């Protein structure tokens, strides 16, 4: 599967590296243009390419948004993600370390409004990039990556990617109620849990 990653900071670059190591292809994009991604593409080898964001969306079978939340609206033409699975890995902050006031709404609810023809899944937004880089191949019990969404098939696709990377997918339910648990200010935000711990928390 070719995964598009929009946002190539520390977390986006880390995701690209572990996806390629797991046998996936990636197409990378950022706000500065594909010419700035030459070193990362060269590091990743033939499984990686670079494009502009809308081009990456068109080439990818699954798209991951790893840009600042405030950049998401208008980032892509809505038709570019029509019928695609889009992983919202963004976090909405109102200031340094302060959750944004969204009036009780989930940040992924807004992403779904901005891109109504995409299948939005909230995931990959709560793990520090240094943990993401190594935890999937470390010995011991798998760490959990939570997923939330309203489309069962879309969640299955994302769960398969998470499993390929050596993590445990744990479903927190629909996009609103499940996503809001893991955005800044939620009880599962930035809280690394093993699969058993995550399942115990969900069932409590």
Automatic annotation (TrEMBL):
Pfam family, one: F420_oxidored
Keywords: Oxidoreductase
SUPFAM superfamilies reported for this sequence: NAD(P)-binding Rossmann-fold domains
The organism's place on the tree of life at top rank: Bacteria
Transmembrane segments: none
Domain Pyrroline-5-carboxylate reductase catalytic N-terminal, chain residue ranges per copy: 4-91
KW Oxidoreductase (keyword) present: yes
InterPro entries reported in the protein's UniProt record: NAD(P)-bd_dom_sf, P5C_Rdtase_cat_N, STEAP_metalloreductase
UniProt entry tagged with the keyword S-adenosyl-L-methionine: no
Name of the protein this chain belongs to: NAD(P)-binding domain-containing protein
